[in-house]
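Example A, followed by Example B.
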Amino acid sequence: MTDLFTAPPRSQADPSFPGPRSGRRAQRRRRRNKRGRAVIVLLVALVLVGGSGYAIWSNLDSLMGLTNPLESKDFPGPGGEQVDVEIPEGATGTVMGQELYKAGVVASVSAFTAAFEANPDSVSIRPGTHAMLEEMPARDAVALLVKNEMVDLQLTIPEGYTVDQIVERAVQVTGLPAEDFEAALKKPATFGLPKQADGDAEGWLYAGTYALKPDKDTAAGLLTQMVDRTEQALRKKDIPGGDWEDVLTKASLVEREGLHAEDKPKIARAIENRLEDGMILQIDAAVAYGAGKPGTELTKEDLRNEKNPYNTYEHTGLPPGPIASPGETSIDAVLHPTPGDWKYWITVNLDTGETKFSETYEQHLAYQQELRDWQAANG
């Protein structure tokens, strides 16, 4: 448990998502820049040699390896390494050709547009990221685009995220409308939320990575995957169905309170000890969840607010439900807490997350002072 104004900041940094594959494009730009400088040098040389330079100029493309996108040149195929190409919304055949040319997929824009116009199915090409091959014949490039085989999106949900944070991240990554998620969450049956959850998805959306097809997946479908993975994890651990909600609730408290994996089984034990003794839990993370604000912004009024059902300073027992999506480490901590008589815990170093546990309130007060000393020294 943590005390007012001393709760360690919970840093839920967004995971890194792969951006566009720009490595090869950057290499091509460097090669083109070098070739451009070489052209200038060669032009100067042609001027110096006069008319004899015409023969060289006529074969300049082959000598320099340059490609003019306006000339109808084509690659023989069959194609090389995979490259991902973003086809913009409302792109014409010419725009598609330009994007493919820049990515090294086709030899010229004109060859692509000719193939695009010759294929009656080209009108079905959808916007999005398509998996292509380098140096493809234009006709093959169009045929591959027509298949609309989009590159999978990777959506990663960090442990400890709330439903609101999960939806926000999903909207950012997938482009699915927030309204679709909101509508699905109001109808739990549409994504298979178990009855134990009592209509609230909090804690039931599994923290992990999902591979998605942006042209196929829906908000309800994504939520279904998340709930399914949570149920699979609970079943794999042989947790009775009637205990699922309580386990997730306790694990979510552990998730939000414990920074280090080795501390989580101790926090789980301290929570159990308090529950067994009928003590209030006094967990700031739960109060903050119910108040709809970060734990670092809690006030004394928040801690006294009896109307907040998640106020573990005013209400004994567990809060009404989970406060976030716990990771499996936190679930395991609840299932296998470390033996001990601890009833208190406090983070004494907000930089390292060092947490100390105590069995008595007197010892806890000493650790509180240790935290205050750290705060004074680190301003």
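Example B, a separate protein, is given below in the same form.
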Amino acid sequence: MPQSIFVNLPVADLARSRAFHEALGFSIDENFTDETAACVVISEAIHLMILTHERFEGFSVLPRADTTSTTGVLIALSRDSREGVDDMLRAALENGAKEPKPADDHGWMYMRTFMDPDGHVFEAFWMDAEAALAARKLES
């Protein structure tokens, strides 16, 4: 099995969170889904495990973050284009997300930030890697 990442996120309402992630275009792996958890498939190697608070607390060694006052994690998801970034943000906003700050546009990188209904922070971004490397060299 190739190395994969499973990011575990506590959610207050599993059905709402599942519907939110499906509205962003992600699928659910029913093999790893039950009444306390759902496996959101972002790509072959990237998954979100959205877990009820009780289920999450069964795994966590520390109290879960209060996402109304702290950021527990920033999840950056690449998109193929600027339009893809805007499309993801639009879908997120239409399904209960909030945009806490304006778009960040460096020319070679374009990013939009949204907070899902549980307050988890996602950053959808597009980057021209060659232009980014050129910009770093100019800064050096």
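On Example B: The domain at 65-140 is CATH 3.10.180.10 (2,3-Dihydroxybiphenyl 1,2-Dioxygenase; domain 1).
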